[in-house]
Structure formats: structure tokens, C-alpha cells
């Protein structure tokens, strides 16, 4: 018998299931998981008994007090063990290159705290700039009075935020600025921007950032695999 999926009164056969997965763009997700399984197998990644035990204990704690069928709970444990294997695959494959990758990415990972005023009027932008420069009013007061963006609610103060999360032009300006240096108005898209770097927070390769960079390398590899490995729905010969 061909495998089928019963959904209420509806019975879906294999071909229909694949067709629906394609229609709802679920096939790429399936292909990704298959690629991951193949990579784990090819790298001969295994879990120690201690790692498996810890993964199962964590799943048990997460589902404590929740009714779960034994079969479903066993699948959850298998998924937890697979997650451990995936993290070991990332470490084995890219862990040795993370330091150099960090220094390559560091200019985008540094965080900044800065003050910002945005306006669409050149005359207002110039007046604000000279008022701040001459000390007539504080940046914060002028931001609350004139700024057209959400920064008006915080007196113009923004951050801490990664440089890579900012508009490239703004990120470039801040990266080249000195703390407390007020910059003349500059146009970014349809707005005039007055900006002052308050503080640069250099990125540190701590555990969360290391994990983030490992995930970046893994996702880059996975996307490349998706592009390079051809896949399509093919009629069965049966």
C-alpha cells in the first residue's frame, strides 16, 4: 500500500502530499532538513550517553505537567538529540575559523549609542545644527521638539545597536566619527539627518556572539547547499 495521510475525512496520497507541500512552499524546509541529516551522517557526528541524557532531561522538564503520548514524547527526545548533533556539527565544521571570522565581521558587529534628529526641511536642519553647535539648546530638547522619527520620544538617543543594523550611510558616518562629535546635516533617503556619536561599544567574542557567528556560518553553508544541490518532484517509476 502507498503511504497516505488521513486528515479528518480526507485521505491524501503521497503524490498529493508532495504537490501540496510544493504549493505551500514547504518543500524547501524539508530539503533543508534532509541536507542537515546528510551532513550529520557524513561527519559521523554522535552524542555521548551523557549528552543524550541531558537532552532528554531538558525535554522532560520543558513538558512537565503536559500530557504527551509516549510515541510523541519519544519523537521529541529524538529531535532534542538531533539538535545536540547539529550544534556539534557546527562546532566541528566552523568552530576553528570563528576567531578569524569574528575579526572579519567586527566592524559591523560593533555597537553604537548615538543621538539623532531627522527632519525633511533643510532650513530647520541647519538651524538645529547651529543651535546645538552654539550651545543654545541641548540635542535632547531639540530632538523632542523637531525630530520626525521615533527617536523624538527618547530625546534623540538611539542604541546600543549593531552598526550592521543601520542604514549603510549612517553606519559609515558613525564608524568614522569621534565620540561627542556633532556632524552637519546629511541627507539619507528623503530625510536630513543630524547625528552625534555618543559611545562606541566594541564587539567582544563572548559565548552568545560566538554562537551567533557559528549560526551565520552554518546558514551561509546551508543556503549554498540549497542553491547547488538540484531537487525537484519527480514521478515515481512504480
From TrEMBL:
PROSITE patterns: PPIC_PPIASE_2 (PS50198). It is an enzyme of class 5 (isomerase). Residues 107-199 form the PpiC domain. Keywords: Isomerase, Rotamase, Signal. SUPFAM superfamilies: FKBP-like. GO terms for molecular function: peptidyl-prolyl cis-trans isomerase activity. Its EC number is 5.2.1.8. It catalyses: [protein]-peptidylproline (omega=180) = [protein]-peptidylproline (omega=0). Pfam families: Rotamase. PANTHER family: FOLDASE PROTEIN PRSA (PTHR47245:SF1), PEPTIDYLPROLYL ISOMERASE (PTHR47245). This is peptidylprolyl isomerase. It comes from Cuspidothrix issatschenkoi CHARLIE-1. The lineage of its organism: Bacteria, Bacillati, Cyanobacteriota, Cyanophyceae, Nostocales.
Amino acid at each position: 500500500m502507498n503511504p497516505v495521510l488521513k486528515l479528518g475525512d480526507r485521505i491524501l496520497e503521497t503524490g498529493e502530499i508532495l504537490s501540496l507541500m510544493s504549493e505551500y512552499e514547504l518543500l524547501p524546509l524539508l530539503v533543508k532538513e534532509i541536507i542537515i541529516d546528510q551532513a550529520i551522517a557524513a561527519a559521523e557526528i554522535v552524542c555521548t550517553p551523557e549528552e543524550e541524557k541531558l537532552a532528554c532531561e531538558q525535554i522532560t522538564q520543558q513538558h512537565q505537567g503536559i500530557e504527551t503520548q509516549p510515541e510523541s514524547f519519544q519523537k521529541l527526545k529524538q529531535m532534542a538529540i538531533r539538535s545536540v548533533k547539529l550544534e556539534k556539527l557546527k562546532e566541528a565544521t566552523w568552530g576553528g575559523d570563528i576567531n578569524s571570522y569574528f575579526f572579519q565581521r567586527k566592524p559591523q558587529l560593533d555597537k553604537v549609542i548615538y543621538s539623532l534628529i531627522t527632519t525633511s526641511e533643510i532650513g530647520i536642519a541647519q538651524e538645529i545644527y547651529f543651535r546645538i553647535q552654539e550651545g543654545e539648546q541641548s540635542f535632547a530638547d531639540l530632538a523632542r521638539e523637531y525630530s520626525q522619527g521615533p527617536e523624538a520620544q527618547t530625546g534623540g538617543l538611539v542604541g546600543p545597536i549593531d552598526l550592521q543594523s543601520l542604514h549603510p550611510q549612517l553606519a559609515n558616518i558613525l564608524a568614522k566619527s569621534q565620540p561627542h562629535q556633532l556632524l552637519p546635516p546629511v541627507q539619507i533617503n528623503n530625510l536630513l539627518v543630524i547625528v552625534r556619536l555618543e559611545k562606541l561599544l566594541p564587539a567582544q567574542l563572548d559565548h552568545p556572539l560566538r554562537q551567533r557567528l557559528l549560526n551565520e556560518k552554518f546558514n551561509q553553508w546551508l543556503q549554498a547547499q540549497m542553491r547547488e544541490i538540484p531537487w525537484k518532484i519527480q514521478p515515481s517509476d512504480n
